[in-house]
């Protein structure tokens, strides 16, 4: 059980959650995809259905023609290739591992017990992921305070998971009210090209998590299943998402669910899942 209650009938334990932010925001991930960019080393491909290959087809100059050599076209690095893996990465499972999914500043870890307001930290503009754990028996409420306040976690007892929240660049701190020991790990995903998946892909898990990265073109189908009794909420965000409604709400269901929807999201996307039990997602191309 977590923040942002979209369904009014989700129970008394969630009635105190702050509502989703104002209606302002960008469509999709808020980032514009440039058209026909010049190939540069390390650049990401803009179409998951096209393979980008180095251009080595410069014709040789005949001996009796102008000996001026043609300009060489820079070759693309191998890291422009997308991963062919069929499953999305779980932030909670890969955190602290060998997957370089986060920006150069890496992950910041915060630990505490009971009610604490943390020191300020600086976050860049873009999607921020918070992995949380609480081992106490009482309530745990975690808020991210900056230009606005985001309710990230509102639960009872021992709990763990991950939540994604778009953040504009600025200074932030966490306001934690907990009945026991807690820990937070904070980072901003900036996945390298070789870690980015392309549809069809799937993901499974239990409880709240953030999975990805997957490159979408705005025409995919997302199928979801949930085996719990409480909220099943899935939102998609681009890595550059920095406003409160920069993502797309894919599912907002209560209890057991099995269905699908179309998505307009395009670019490198992460999926934020709120659930109280087992769930699965499948992303397929048009």
Question: Could you please describe the fold and organization of this structure?
Answer:
It comes from Natronomonas pharaonis (strain ATCC 35678 / DSM 2160 / CIP 103997 / JCM 8858 / NBRC 14720 / NCIMB 2260 / Gabara) (Halobacterium pharaonis). Residues 15-84 are annotated as: Disordered. Residues 59-81 have a biased composition (Acidic residues). With 286 residues, the protein is an all-beta fold. It has a single domain, classed as Sandwich (Jelly Rolls). The chain is built from 1 helix and 18 strands.
| Content-based structural category | mainly beta
Largest sheet: 5 strands, antiparallel
The total tally of domains equals 1
CATH architecture: Sandwich
Report mean pLDDT, rounded to a whole number: 79
Q: N-to-C SSE series? A: EHEEEEEEEEEEEEEEEEE
Number of strands: 18
CATH topology, which one? Jelly Rolls
Total helical segments: 1
How far is it from the N-terminal to the C-terminal residue, by CA?
32 Å
Radius of gyration: 21 Å
Region (Disordered): 15-84
Protein name: Probable secreted glycoprotein
Biased composition (Acidic residues): 59-81
């Amino acid at each position: 059980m977590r923040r942002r209650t979209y369904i009014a009938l989700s129970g008394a334990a969630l009635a105190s959650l702050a509502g989703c932010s104002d209606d302002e925001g960008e469509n999709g991930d808020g980032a514009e995809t440039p058209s026909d960019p010049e190939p540069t080393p390390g650049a990401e491909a803009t179409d998951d259905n096209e393979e980008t290959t180095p251009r080595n087809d410069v014709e040789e100059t005949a001996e009796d023609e102008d000996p001026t050599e043609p300009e060489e076209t820079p070759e693309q690095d191998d890291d422009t290739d997308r991963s062919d893996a069929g499953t999305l990465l779980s932030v909670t499972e890969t955190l602290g591992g060998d997957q370089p999914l986060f920006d150069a500043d890496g992950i910041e870890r915060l630990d505490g017990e009971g009610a604490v307001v943390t020191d300020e930290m600086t976050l860049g503009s873009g999607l921020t992921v918070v992995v949380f754990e609480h081992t106490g028996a009482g309530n745990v409420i975690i808020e991210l305070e900056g230009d606005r306040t985001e309710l990230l976690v509102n639960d009872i007892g021992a709990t763990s998971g991950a939540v994604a929240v778009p953040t504009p660049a600025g200074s932030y701190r966490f306001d934690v009210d907990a009945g026991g020991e807690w820990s937070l790990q904070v980072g901003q995903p900036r996945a390298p090209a070789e870690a980015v998946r392309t549809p069809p892909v799937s993901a499974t898990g239990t409880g709240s998590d953030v999975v990805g990265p997957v490159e979408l073109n705005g025409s995919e189908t997302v199928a979801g299943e949930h085996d719990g009794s409480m909220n099943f909420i899935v939102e998609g965000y681009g890595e550059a998402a920095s406003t409160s409604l920069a993502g797309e709400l894919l599912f907002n269901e209560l209890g057991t669910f099995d269905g699908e929807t179309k998505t307009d999201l395009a670019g490198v996307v992460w999926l934020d899942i709120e659930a109280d039990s087992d769930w699965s997602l499948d992303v397929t191309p048009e």
